[in-house]
């Protein structure tokens, strides 16, 4: 596991990336080169506002931490994460839980607390 260091210095087979508390305003492009092996991605406590389309190609993810950001929407592509077991999007600005999350059949824990949910 590594924290706030350039990803290109690491092996191509990475299962866990920890970028918590790194003042990120966007998802680093380098993360996508680990799409074939990445199972755990921790991006908590940053300043992320949105998740780019490419983000949803990380289909091997089992654990995704996005708490304490400024995310305003989870797009329908969340359904791509069929192996996702744990999702933490607490303390963001998400107004609704997308219906497509029902396609995440492996999901056991989904934390939406601290969001201004309206439905």
TrEMBL record:
InterPro entries: Leu-rich_rpt (IPR001611), Leu-rich_rpt_typical-subtyp (IPR003591), LRR_dom_sf (IPR032675), Synaptic_Scaffolding_LAP-MAGUK (IPR050614). GO terms for biological process: cell-cell adhesion; establishment or maintenance of epithelial cell apical/basal polarity; neurotransmitter receptor transport postsynaptic membrane to endosome; neurotransmitter receptor transport, endosome to postsynaptic membrane; receptor clustering. Keywords: Leucine-rich repeat, Repeat. One of its GO terms (molecular function) is protein kinase binding. It holds the Pfam family LRR_8. GO terms for cellular component: adherens junction; basolateral plasma membrane; postsynaptic density; postsynaptic membrane. It comes from the Eukaryota. This is Leucine-rich repeat-containing protein 1. It comes from Cricetulus griseus.
């Amino acid at each position: 596991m590594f924290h706030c260091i350039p990803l290109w210095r690491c092996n191509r087979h990475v299962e866990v990336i920890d970028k918590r508390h790194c003042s990120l305003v966007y998802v680093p492009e380098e993360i996508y080169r680990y799409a074939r092996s990445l199972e755990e991605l921790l991006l908590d406590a940053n300043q992320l506002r949105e998740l780019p389309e490419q983000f949803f190609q990380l289909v091997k993810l089992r654990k995704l931490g996005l708490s304490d950001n400024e995310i305003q929407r989870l797009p329908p592509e969340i359904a791509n994460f069929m192996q996702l077991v744990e999702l933490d999007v607490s303390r963001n600005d998400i107004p609704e839980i997308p219906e497509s999350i029902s396609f995440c059949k492996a999901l056991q824990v989904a934390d939406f607390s601290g969001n201004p949910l309206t439905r």
